[in-house]
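quick q for whoever's on today - can somebody do inverse folding on this one?? i tried earlier but teh output was garbage lol. tokens:
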């Protein structure tokens, strides 16, 4: 007695042909596919380069030859988002690379829970109108961040909730993922400070003292009395100017009117920002809400910060040796 070994690919082909005929009665399927494996094995033995046909097409040929009608097409049911996600996870799990990705995402899931709370904190800081990078600074903001992180973690850990709970969680994750990119961009933009800029490669406009811009200069005479309309220049004859003024100063004690520092006109018609102290001019919002100087408004003097300063001492006798500049600068502080 001779035993024929059926190759695995032929056995799989026959199984798929029978599956395509599964709408027919079992005895009919058995009759149509009786001896299928043996016939295919014999054909392969004679021609090793022979390729197997499509199982579904082969099943249709058997069905048509036997006079059986084709099965009615079954309408494909539309899967819900949850079923779609489950199907995607199932497909990825069957692939080694996809399975590795899913394992990694499962490991870092708690990190996402924490990040979700921090993202919400950042956007709340932006919506509050607080200046600077949208990261927690004071005790109140840190307390808010901790509470939101705890709420985010507990929300994700509550696996026993209903379908609505899981749908809300998926929606929150999608919104958070979309909000991450602009938030990170805002943090990066707001975090750039002048301290990180190489001072040797960039010279900011206007006078600077201890890293802070100078907005006005007040001069005093030898007796310590304030003087006005002083033009200041450096050793190269360049005018000393301050940072471009911003409107924010009050023009009266009740602060009913606001104004900004303005330049002075020289006799040659040019505007000068080195005539100190600078004067104020009234600013008002226009119909669009933007502040601008009031045309024809008179300029107003700015009161000096000190009504009088110590007078300059008389010159020292010629026999006294002058101190070097660093010592002079140190003693004057």
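ok took a stab at it. sequence:
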């Amino acid at each position: 007695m001779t035993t024929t070994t059926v190759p695995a690919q032929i056995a799989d082909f026959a199984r798929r042909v029978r599956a395509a005929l599964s709408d027919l009665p079992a005895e009919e399927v058995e009759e149509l596919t009786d001896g299928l494996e043996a016939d295919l094995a014999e054909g392969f033995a004679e021609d090793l380069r022979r390729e197997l046909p499509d199982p579904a097409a082969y099943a249709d040929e058997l069905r048509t030859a036997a006079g059986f009608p084709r099965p009615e097409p079954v309408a494909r049911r539309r899967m819900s988002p949850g079923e779609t996600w489950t199907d995607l996870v199932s497909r990825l799990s069957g692939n080694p690379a996809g399975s590795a990705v899913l394992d990694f995402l499962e490991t870092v899931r708690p990190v996402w829970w924490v990040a979700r709370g921090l993202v919400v904190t950042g956007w709340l800081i932006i919506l509050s109108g607080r200046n600077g990078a949208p990261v927690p600074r004071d005790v109140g903001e840190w307390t808010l961040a901790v509470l939101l992180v705890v709420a985010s973690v507990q929300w994700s850990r509550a696996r026993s909730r209903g379908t609505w709970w899981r749908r809300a969680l998926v929606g929150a994750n999608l919104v958070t993922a979309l909000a991450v990119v602009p938030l990170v961009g805002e943090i990066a933009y707001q975090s750039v400070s002048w301290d990180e800029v190489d001072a040797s490669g960039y010279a900011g406009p206007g006078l600077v003292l201890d890293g802070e811009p100078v907005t006005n200069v007040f001069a005093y005479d030898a007796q310590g009395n304030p003087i006005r309309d002083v033009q200041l220049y450096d050793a190269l004859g360049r005018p000393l100017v301050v940072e471009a003024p911003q409107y924010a100063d009050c023009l009266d004690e009740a602060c009913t009117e606001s104004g900004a520092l303005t330049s002075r006109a020289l006799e040659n018609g040019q505007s000068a920002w080195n005539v100190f102290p600078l004067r104020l001019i009234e600013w008002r919002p226009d119909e669009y809400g933007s502040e601008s100087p009031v045309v024809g408004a008179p300029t107003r003097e700015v009161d000096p910060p000190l009504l009088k300063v110590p007078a300059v001492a008389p010159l020292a006798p010629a026999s006294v040796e002058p101190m070097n500049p660093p010592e002079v600068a140190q003693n004057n502080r």
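fwiw The first helix runs from residue 8 to 20. also The chain has a mean pLDDT of 76. so keep that in mind when u check it
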